[in-house]
Amino acid sequence: MTISVGMGSAAGNVPAALDLEELLATRLLVQGNSGSGKSHLLRRLLEQSAGQVQQVVIDPEGDFVTLADRYGHVVVDGTHGEADLHRIAARVRAHRVSVVLTLEALDAEAQMRAAAAFLGGLFDAERDHWYPVLVVVDEAQLFAPAAAGEVSDEARKASLGAMTNLMCRGRKRGLAGVIATQRLAKLAKNVAAEASNFLMGRTFLDIDMARAADLLGLERRQAESFRDLERGQFVALGPALSRRPLTLRIGPVETSPRSTSPKLVPLPEPASGEALRDLILAPGEEEPSWMPAPRPAPPRPPSPTDLLHQLAQYRPTEPAAEEAPAMPAEEREAALAAILREIAADPDAAHHPVAVQYQDFLVRCRMRRLGGEPPNLAAFRRRLAIARAGIDEAGPESRSADDVLAACAALPDEVQGLFLLLARAAREGAPCPTDDALARAIGSRSPGRARRLLGYLETRGTVVCRTDFRGNRIVALPALSCETGPGDPKAAPVAATPGLFAAE
């Protein structure tokens, strides 16, 4: 069954009706400058459909609260907290009560937050409560602005998201959005574009006339006709109104808004200049001699952004750290050497920056409750290179390694690991390490980088490289009077053995 709502009359005094069921599925956009009759149109729609469908009105100026006396709407004050408004909206859907959310006591940002919370409650209602609801939003450009204004980004995004959900995803939840705006240019396009029915009233700005003409499918030269519309006249188009642009005049309403258009009132009889001066400057007889100071506005509740900033600035009083138990120096050094060997033996650790490895080293020290000052980054880099080369400073062969460490001390940190690996292989008479093994010793995945650093050592005279008749590489270390055995530099990498990268 089709339910028609009488909106007024078209040309020739022909009744103009609106298909309510079609409106619930296709939504409505009303546009017109201030004084064009938008609020009168919304009031006519609400009055004519009051007994047919549940209604929710988002009222920023408190004009629609008069519907409560005649049609039983419940007036909800927007000064409730956001959580309360969200719960109230859920109850509105559950009990199918028509309400007017009045926001006149709030500033612009608080209105956006309150509307977002209430619309969010309507949208998030349980599936069993998805009954048809006509959601009327007056001055929709306040809640879905096309550009950022003086309000916080958090409030604007919340309100715009709620309006977008209403117009884009609300149909499946039974929410039919009816939005009215003074200017299409001020309304977010993704919100306006979801309406399929339009009622365009009087407007004068070229950009608004052009957008209205585009929505109605009119030519640009026909857009001038919007300037000629009278108060209460609208051009209608849409499946619930008319398949072709139709000019109609909105009919009368039974209730009246609390605020009316200004009307001229005769001025009082003029009095003499002195009398007027005394009337303004001199206190009256019944006027109290003292007036209380105006109450300051309540402070704005902190936004989530403010709270996050406060949390970032908060510095709690740190409790006294529990001191690690005293540990003998030899035992502590042995524990540090064990940690360094663990990091050196980890195949993935060698490919991370030294700063990351140092952080891992500090964490391991705290886990084992090693007291005292840990080695700094430079000392850690040196000791890690020694551990990767398999030279244990704390072991019984530490004395025989003194000359190796002395020869290594003058080299840059970047090549110390490579030199120590070559020194160990030369001392043991082992084959020359492969390019991959040299790369791992310097914490790299690039064999080419290892070859470049080896060439750098050769230019300094620290090592001497030669190749035998089979193409194997031999590296001599003049400072230590030893050389490695022949080894294929491009041999496939093999699993690390205890004699190469970990202490035996």
From TrEMBL:
Q: Which residues form the Helicase HerA central domain?
A: 8-76
Q: What's the superkingdom here?
A: Bacteria
Q: Which SUPFAM superfamilies match?
A: P-loop containing nucleoside triphosphate hydrolases
Q: What is the lineage of its organism?
A: Bacteria, Pseudomonadati, Pseudomonadota, Alphaproteobacteria, Hyphomicrobiales
Q: Where is the signal peptide?
A: none
Spell out the protein name for this chain.
Answer: ATP-binding protein
Q: Look up and give the organism this protein is from.
A: Methylobacterium oryzihabitans
A Pfam family in this protein?
A: DUF87
Recall the GO molecular function terms of this protein's record: ATP binding
Q: Which keywords belong to this entry?
A: ATP-binding, Nucleotide-binding
Instruction: Note the coiled coil stretches, chain numbering.
Output: none
